[in-house]
Write a structure and sequence with these properties.
3 helices; 92 residues; single chain; mainly alpha; 2 strands; two-stranded parallel ribbon
Length: 92
């Protein structure tokens, strides 16, 4: 019982720290300004990425050796898209 509680508490702590860091990252990215065309193309890439990552994940379920790569690349995409989403749009 004690081991389960310690593991659950550590996992919860990691999630809380991750959420705090993600919030700090999003507030930091608000200081930047990006052109509207770049944001538009990023959103198009996001739509294609959602489909592509779902297909890649289904393939990685069968070949487990690909799963770490899928998770790391999808995390990089999440960070990139959250930066673009939170950045201000330049007035042209």
């Amino acid at each position: 019982m004690e081991n389960w509680f310690v593991t659950a508490a550590m996992e919860f702590g990691i999630v809380v720290i991750g959420l705090i860091l993600f919030g700090k990252f999003c507030s930091w990215s608000k200081k930047f300004s990006l052109p509207g065309k770049l944001k538009l193309w990023t959103y198009i890439l996001l739509g294609l990425g959602v489909v592509g990552f779902n297909v890649w994940y289904k393939i990685a379920e069968k070949d487990v050796t690909q799963m770490p790569t899928v998770l790391v690349v999808s995390l990089v995409f999440v960070i990139f898209f959250s930066f673009v989403l939170m950045a201000e749009t330049k007035q042209e």
